Amino acid sequence: SAVISQKPSRDICQRGTSLTIQCQVDSQVTMMFWYRQQPGQSLTLIATANQGSEATYESGFVIDKFPISRPNLTFSTLTVSNMSPEDSSIYLCSVSYQMEQYFGPGTRLTVT
Amino acid sequence: AQTVTQSQPEMSVQEAETVTLSCTYDTSESNYYLFWYKQPPSRQMILVIRQEAYKQQNATENRFSVNFQKAAKSFSLKISDSQLGDTAMYFCAFISGSEKLVFGKGTKLTVNP
After folding, report:
1. Which of A44-53, A98-107, B73-82: highest mean pLDDT?
2. Distance CA B70, CA B81 (A)
3. What is the mean pLDDT of residues A54-78?
4. Does residue B98 surpass a pLDDT of 70?
5. A100 interfacial to chain B (CB closer than 8 Å)
6. Of the candidates B91, B93, B90, the residue with the CA atom closest to the CA atom of residue B109
């Protein structure tokens, strides 16, 4: 299995600021994914991050708002930029490893 | 487009009883995988069980089993001998060659003592 850690686990941020979430996995993986889970909702894929290439964003998500870095095969960051209260969600990192998908513990973001 | 439908937003069951959560999906792919994930209040997504579409035999993991009906595109989860720790959101999910998981909206399961 793959073990994933995320930092921070939670944060409260002011409107208009940015937050960078880190995701570290204990195995080398090709594909990493970032999801958003709004309160009481299912998971929505934000983007797929492959090492050495630009992230691929899903419909409704743009790079200016959610820039992603993927500097190596075990690490990625997601930045939530110019935050508004609508960005209050849980953000989860995930990896595909040996035909299973594993998730980090999530980052609970509250924007005031 | 591939979709996953969970028609039961909430369910409850008495401790030690059996409960079945429903899931249907839509795809034109022939090779794919189906999963049930559990998300307790801690919010950690935990893989409960997975099923390969090419396998006719239903997957089983201890108290958890699935009823996979490929022709009907149905993938239900049965939890036997329910325990208080089974209280969680349960998400049905689908993945094919694109390696992008598609999730259902989830079913909130409450196990009552």
Report:
1. B73-82
2. 26
3. 94
4. no
5. yes
6. B90
Give the percent of chain B with pLDDT over 90.
Answer: 82
For residue A94, which residues of chain B lie inside 8 Å, CB to CB?
A: 45, 101
Secondary element (H or E) of residue A45: strand A44-50
Closest chain A residue to B4, measured at CA: A42
pLDDT tens sequence across B1-48: 789 999 999 999 999 999 999 999 998 888 899 999 999 988 889 999
CA B112 – CA B107 distance, rounded (Å) = 16
Q: d(Cα B65, Cα B58) in Å, to the nearest integer? A: 7
pLDDT of residue B42: 83
What is the DSSP secondary-structure string of B56-112? -SPPEETTEEEEEETTTTEEEEEE-S--GGG-EEEEEEEE-TT---EE---EEEEEE
Q: Is B101's CB within 8 Å of A31's CB?
A: no
Count Cβ neighbours within 10 Å for each residue of A78-106 and write b for 16 or more, e otherwise.
bebbebeeebbbbbbbbbbbeeebbbbbb
B94 touches chain A (CB under 8 A): no
Structure tokens at B73: 């595109």
